[in-house]
């Protein structure tokens, strides 16, 4: 049966509103920052192979907050090197926000930014068309593989761009998160596969295993307070529900059966824990680190 539900991706204003609220209610960015400060330095230590210049590609960089955090760790590890940073991001609003952030940080003058207002697949097409031979030392794809047609092919392409000792980092929700549970039961009703896919690091691991690609793997514990979702008519609860389901106006457009089923599962111990009077959704993330192909 075709899904009559509209993807949240079609309404960028509402996506950004629900995303901002999600960031306030969750530890998503904090757990990434912890990873960047505690684990990433060791991963970045081996890249570059003594070069004085490093090429970085951010795929789906958004407003750049997490990118700049990583670039700062890279600079701490390799203080003498200059950096060429290719930013790939289709949203002009997000690219603008990223540029503003950069303009406020003159200390980033060791980085040359190249702004690519396009999707990952457009970037891939351009790269192939121009027969680019440039290689990358560090590529990251954070919470973006949901939005490509073929996550496996996208990983293979970007992995092929890695230079000797280069690293590709992927962050997605973990299979053992509330999203993993929600999608096992409701992917057919919720996922508009034309636009976004219910893919977890579990799926990516199985893909890499099947290709014989080795990787390092980390789990980032993360949570999200979804208590407001259970107050009928609560504006913020509805925004959070839209983010969780990626359905525009989920509360108003989903069938009563689907809505009841999703709400029941969201508060079930397989998705959420209880802390005092709060419902705390498991937003655990997975990180995969991949080397240049052999
Ligand atoms: C668009 C699509 C996706 C966006 C976006 C805009 C997005 C964040 C901000 N703006 Cl058009 N995606 C995003 C970011 C973080 C995150 C997830 C998606 O944790 C996770 N999804 C699946 C687990 C949320 C349903």
Task: Write a compact overview of the structure shown.
It comes from Nothobranchius furzeri. The chain is an alpha/beta fold and 294 residues long. It is built from 12 helices and 10 strands.
Offer a few descriptive terms:
single chain, alpha/beta, Rossmann fold, three-stranded antiparallel sheet, 12 helices, 42% helix, globular, binds ligand CQA, HHMT-like, N-methyltransferase activity, transferase, S-adenosyl-L-methionine, SAM-dependent_MTases_sf
Q: In total, how many beta strands?
A: 10
Number of helices: 12
3D shape: globular
- First-to-last CA distance: 44 Å
The portion of residues forming beta strands comes to 15-25%
Mind telling me the CATH superfamily name? Vaccinia Virus protein VP39
Q: What is the fold named in CATH at topology level?
A: Rossmann fold
Q: Which percent range fits the helix content?
A: 40-55%
Biggest sheet layout: 7 strands, mixed
